[in-house]
Design brief:
Number of strands: 5
Largest sheet: 5 strands, parallel
CATH class of the largest domain: Mainly Alpha
Radius of gyration: 24 Å
Shape: globular
Order of helices and strands: EHEHHEHEHEHHHHHHHHHHHHHHHH
CATH superfamily of the largest domain: DNA Cyclobutane Dipyrimidine Photolyase, subunit A, domain 3
Distance between the termini: 60 Å
Strand order of the largest sheet: 3-2-1-4-5
Number of helices: 21
Number of domains: 3
CATH architecture of the largest domain: Orthogonal Bundle
Helix content: 40-55%
Amino acid sequence: MAILEEKALVWLRRDLRVHDHHALRMAMQRSKAVFVCFVFDTDILSALLSRGLVADRRIDFIWQSLLEVDAELRAHGGGLIVRHGRSTDIVPSLARELGVSHVYVNKDYEPAAIERDRTVADALSKAKIGFSALKDQVIFEEREVLTGSGGVFSVFTPYKNAWLKKLTATDLDAHAVDLSSGRLAAIPKALDQGIPSLESMGFQKTGIETYLPTGMSGASHFFEEFLHRMDQYHATRDFPAVKGPSYLSMHSRFGTISIRALVREAHSRMLAGSMGATIWLSELIWRDFYFMILANHPRLAPARTSNHPTSGHESFKVDYDNIRWESGAHAEKLFKAWCEGKTGYPLVDAAMHQLNQSGYMHNRLRMVVASFLVKDLGIDWRWGEQYFADHLNDFDFAANNGGWQWASSSGCDAQPYFRIFNPITQSEKFDPEGKFIRKYLPQLAKLSNKVIHAPWLAGSIELEMAGIRLGQDYPMPIVDHNEARKNTLIRYAVVKKVTEKSS
């Protein structure tokens, strides 16, 4: 029988739960007394505050989720130690103060996080404290799913097929945690400082809990609700006015629910013949895929912190970095119109209003607005990537970068650059009655279902009856889609030339 460590510390990051938790289970198996901590890392928070994101829903979500984790731990004799500062300083210091012999974390795959963990591990090592990083937020990581020749996949479908072939029941086993084992350690009184308020850290409450329940209980609520809709997911997922998605993306991002629980349910239903579950499982595999891509291609992440959206990181397909994007005052004006939902294309504008008001955007619409920014407006995809990074509740660098590069055709995508979404036909197909548009653009509510997708095509009488003056109540289109498509093909021709030259 292995000799137990006297004390261990579990450092939570994007795993804000106390069940099916690899690091917590491992610590409680190996240690007599287990402490749990979380750090509001100023290396991350300062960047948000510098960009004016005082009312950041994600920080509020984390804060509320921590309250639930703390309550659960205290109910079983422990508690959550929460600090505000640089994690690279605080975690080693806290480990020494607590007298632990080991720190356990669940692994993170972003280059900045890897560097952070390396710094912490080095500091702990000098104090003769161990450090273990465990796989928890993905099913398969890094180089666990490889091509037949032992290489890394760069296209999703063959990756998915290999992923499914590799999957076993063991991969989906829960990392069960017995909170009643008596191994949770009470926080020493001198270190029990409670959870710092949002205001003390420079942030504000956002009211996110009114439409997106937080914490483990919120995740459980959404998952239980989605179980009744999962089998219809394939038929409903693309329609923003329909309750089709799981609404679990923020919860999976911050780990208030285990990815294993989600995949286990989806995979079981897929085997039983559910088309909805099959498609949803594919979405979950995309998540693993993008984590894998980032882990094997860290060049995709910015080399350094910068407030400029185009600084630092490369296109997956490097030839696409030869494209000359719009620049200067004109580009800034177009980008501002896109950000504010004032492009004159209702589906695009409604989607941006949804994002700005709630921090959420329907997945179909993410593709539509991204395509519009890059291929209708000719704006560098990195500008949109940064805007999403600032405003999406479920922002995750790997998925966000992957999605934007998919939209710009510069990423892991077998489709060539001439895939360009038509914002009008997308609107007619996926919001045929204009319900979504009317919700976020009430000034267009009285337009007919026929013209609400392109108000400038409405007759003067219909516009007058709807109380709309184009250019005042709602903008004229800032670009002609057909002309923009032609310009995009010209803009992207440089990629074809570079590719032909190198081949």
